[in-house]
């Protein structure tokens, strides 16, 4: 069990020795966060510099903030339910009620600190307080890095298998500094986290699983070096046995921090950072029948090539609908519009503009949301007028984007005319049938519709009477 931080001289020494991955390790993790962030976030490279430079800020605060230290660790194996089941209650209040506040704080609050900081980051993104958001993101990078250090997830945080202290520092500082040239890795693009609490606790549990191998690697390296924890023989053997795990943990830590920052940004509505190359003063969406009309206005423009109009059903995957040319350079108000005629089904949709510079740069607008409400069911209405001569109107509705075929047969079942055969978005439609050249009698109008996802189908017939 770790002691609660007390800012004395001995405690300051403890901080210097046991500060997460150490300054080098945290910089390595933090400098790889930015490269995981999707370009769609539009974050400038100054974020990379800030995250790296401020990677150890939480460690530096320990000497002045007595509440800081517990945020850097959790002695997960102190709790009997973890030993028995492999997990603990994620709800902080319920966990405190079970174990008392003093016990929980003494044994570390790392996962809950990450969850709290993510919520704070989301709020700052909503406010577009980019300065404060950078600092909170840097803190998150540090805490998530600690959550990927095995000795920050155990009661046995410093004692090796021979009962000697110092393993914590040897692992996170001495070994990292000796082999930092090997700690370079590429990573994947950040992903959205649907359940933040599960995500954070799961990587804590995963990190803990690396503990035993790190302890054994140290003990074997000591034996190889003649029961010593110093020198090149010890470090070489330690790296040989633990280096791959260390790279994996750091890489996963960078990706996890990026996932959390990206999720906070998405949940905040994906706000644009900085000013657009154009002064966008309004951007609206409104349903009109089967379509959505998008209108936006600019007050001024500079080097504006134009706008990609993008739509999403989940704010994660975006589809380009069209490109609308801009006005280049302008000091007068300009209005643009686009009609989206391809809504696939009822539901919530999100729109944004990707403003393109003439020199190839781009920025995203804020996201706007619209609830599209079209027909709830397939239908084929009776033609009107009926009887008719020679023109009549046929109305039908589609609740989903569908493959549509509308045909007319005579009373003998012979095909007279195909009125439509194509893919159509959800909506209500009207089509005309001209019976010039046909003799009086009863005709059958048939609608066959199959949703493009293959889950829904519809078939309907209506009798139409032609009187000449």
Explain what the structure shows.
This protein has 468 residues and is of the alpha+beta class. It folds into 3 domains: 9-267, P1 Nuclease (Orthogonal Bundle), CATH 1.10.575; 278-372, Immunoglobulin-like (Sandwich), CATH 2.60.40; 379-466, Immunoglobulin-like, CATH 2.60.40. Helices cover 35% and strands 28% of the residues. The chain is built from 13 helices and 14 strands. The protein has helices at 9-17, 22-31, 46-53, 57-61, 80-85, 92-99, 101-106, 110-127, 130-146, 167-178, 196-208, 211-224, 231-267; strands spanning 278-288, 291-312, 319-330, 334-340, 347-357, 362-364, 368-372, 379-380, 391-398, 402-410, 415-424, 427-434, 441-451, 457-466. α2 (22-31) packs antiparallel against α3, α2 (22-31) packs across α13 and α8 packs antiparallel against α9. Mean pLDDT is 91; it is low at 1-18.
* Proportion in β-strands: 25-35%
| Helix/strand class | alpha+beta
Q: How many domains in all?
A: 3
- Helix tally equals 13
The N- and C-terminal alpha carbons lie at a distance of 96 Å
Instruction: Write the CATH architecture name of the largest domain.
Output: Orthogonal Bundle
Gyration radius from CA atoms, angstroms: 32 Å
- The coarse overall form would be elongated
CATH class of the largest domain: Mainly Alpha
Low-pLDDT runs of 5+ residues are: 1-18
CATH superfamily placement of the largest domain: P1 Nuclease
């Amino acid at each position: 069990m770790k002691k609660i931080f007390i800012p004395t001289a001995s405690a300051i020494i403890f901080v210097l020795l046991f500060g997460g991955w150490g300054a080098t390790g945290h910089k390595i993790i933090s400098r790889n966060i930015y490269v995981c962030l999707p370009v769609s976030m539009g974050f400038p490279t100054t974020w990379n510099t800030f995250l790296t430079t401020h990677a150890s800020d939480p460690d530096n605060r320990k000497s002045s903030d007595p509440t800081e230290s517990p945020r850097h660790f959790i002695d997960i194996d102190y709790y009997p339910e973890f030993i028995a089941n492999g997990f603990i209650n994620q709800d902080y209040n319920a966990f405190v009620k079970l174990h008392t506040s003093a016990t929980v704080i003494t044994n570390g609050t790392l996962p809950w600190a990450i969850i709290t900081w993510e919520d704070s980051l989301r709020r700052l993104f909503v406010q577009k307080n980019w300065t404060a958001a950078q600092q909170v993101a840097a803190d998150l990078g540090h805490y998530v890095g600690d959550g990927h250090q095995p000795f920050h997830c155990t009661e046995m945080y410093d004692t090796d298998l021979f009962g000697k202290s110092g393993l914590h520092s040897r692992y996170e500082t001495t070994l990292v500094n000796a082999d930092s040239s090997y700690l370079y890795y590429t990573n994947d693009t950040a992903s959205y986290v649907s359940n933040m609490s599960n995500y954070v606790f799961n990587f804590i549990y995963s990190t803990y699983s690396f503990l035993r191998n790190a302890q054994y690697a140290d003990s074997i390296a000591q034996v190889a070096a003649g029961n010593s924890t110093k020198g090149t023989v010890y470090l070489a053997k330690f790296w040989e046995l633990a280096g791959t795990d260390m790279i994996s943990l750091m890489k996963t830590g960078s990706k996890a921090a990026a996932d959390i920052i990206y999720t906070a940004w998405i949940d905040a509505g994906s706000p644009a950072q900085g000013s657009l190359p154009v002064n966008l003063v309004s951007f609206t969406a409104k349903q009109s029948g089967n379509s959505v009309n998008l209108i936006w206005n600019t007050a001024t423009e500079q080097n504006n090539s134009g706008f990609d109009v993008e739509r999403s059903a989940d704010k994660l995957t975006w589809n380009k609908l069209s490109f609308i040319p801009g006005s280049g350079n302008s000091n007068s108000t300009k209005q643009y519009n686009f009609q989206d005629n391809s809504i696939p089904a009822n539901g919530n949709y999100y729109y944004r503009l990707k403003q393109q510079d003439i020199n190839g740069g781009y920025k995203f607008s804020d996201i706007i949301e619209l609830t599209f409400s079209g027909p709830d069911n397939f239908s084929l209405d009776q033609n009107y007028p009926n009887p008719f001569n020679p023109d009549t109107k046929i109305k039908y509705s589609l609740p989903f984007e569908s493959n549509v075929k509308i045909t007319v047969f005579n009373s003998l079942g012979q095909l007279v005319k195909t009125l439509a055969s194509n893919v159509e978005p959800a909506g209500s439609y009207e089509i005309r049938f001209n019976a010039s050249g046909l003799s009086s009698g009863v005709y059958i109008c048939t609608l066959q519709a199959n949703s493009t996802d293959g889950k829904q189908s519809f078939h309907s017939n209506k009798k139409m009477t032609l009187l000449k």
